[in-house]
Amino acid sequence: MAKRESKVPRVFDMDNRLCLWSATGVVEPKLCHNAFDCISCAFDKAMQRKKSMGWLAAGLEEPPQPGGLWNRERWLQTAPDQRWCRHMLSGRVTARTCDHLYECGNCEYDQMIEDNPSPQADDSLPLVYAAGFKVPPNYYFHPGHTWARLEYGGRLRVGLDDLAARVFGPADEFRLPRLGEAVRGGGAELAFSRGGRQARALCPVEGVVVASNPQALKRPPEMCRSPYLEGWLLLIEPVRMQRDLLGLMTGDDGVDWMTEESQRLSDLITAESGQRLAATGGRVVADVFGSVPGLNWHHLVDKFLRP
């Protein structure tokens, strides 16, 4: 299946994709390619080096306030629209100015924002319905029916998608990697069970676990009710973010794929039970396995979680 045209990763609910250096008028318009993770951004590092060398020494034109923009005293006197915090420019916070000359690695506020593991939940999450299943266009989908959502700062939140949640129904238990544990893209890292039956789903990206959803451990059956928001499972610091995301499906590709998967599911249900895929109001029932007698749990796992 063809991938999206743009190579710029899509950030969940991001209001502004303009690079911070462009937003403040220092360089020509340029899109952010690193989810506003300035600390790990090669372009930001190059700009910081040029800033320390001096603009003329680096062969660049001087920024909007010649000779004084990077002096802290002059910086604090600069108009707010030339020194907005990167988290405001990306839409994550309402209003915040930068007091650290865009040296985010030395900023306590930046560290507080990055260490906040709460999801960027929004009741107005845009959704497309694909043959009875929900698909958020800005999420990335793995063929094993897990998703990844790129968040501000370059971390990735992952979970089971709507098809997996509806097919397997409420779980009795989740067994997830611990904090600090490395996970592999395509590794069988997301384990859950129901009625003594076991299943493992594939992690969509490679990285290190920095947070897990405590509700998945306390109230596992509730995770399938809102798989894309409250039902998230892990927050991951990726190792190769762009490589991993380019290997996943998003946008129209994700919708087309989910439509095909819905047909595969319907064919399997008909073959194993003689019934058709049950739906109410255009949506697939919340618990396919629990609603359709005769389905084989292991066949469902092999067909949809372990492609």
CATH overall fold name of the largest domain? OB fold (Dihydrolipoamide Acetyltransferase, E2P)
The low-confidence parts are 1-6, 55-60, 64-69, 117-123
* Helix/strand/pairing category: alpha+beta
Total number of helices: 11
Give the SSE order as H and E letters: HHHHHEEEEEHEEEEEHEHHEEHH
The average pLDDT score comes to: 80
Terminal residue distance: 15 Å
Share of helical residues: 25-40%
Which architecture of the largest domain per CATH?
A: Beta Barrel
Q: Would you spell out the secondary-structure blueprint of this structure?
A:
Layout: H1 20-23, H2 42-53, H3 72-77, H4 86-89, H5 108-114, E1 128-130, E2 133-135, E3 140-142, E4 146-150, E5 156-160, H6 162-168, E6 173-175, E7 182-183, E8 190-194, E9 197-201, E10 207-212, H7 214-218, E11 234-238, H8 241-246, H9 251-273, E12 279-280, E13 283-284, H10 288-291, H11 297-305
Antiparallel strand pairs: 1-2, 3-4, 4-5, 5-11, 6-8, 7-10, 8-9, 10-11, 12-13
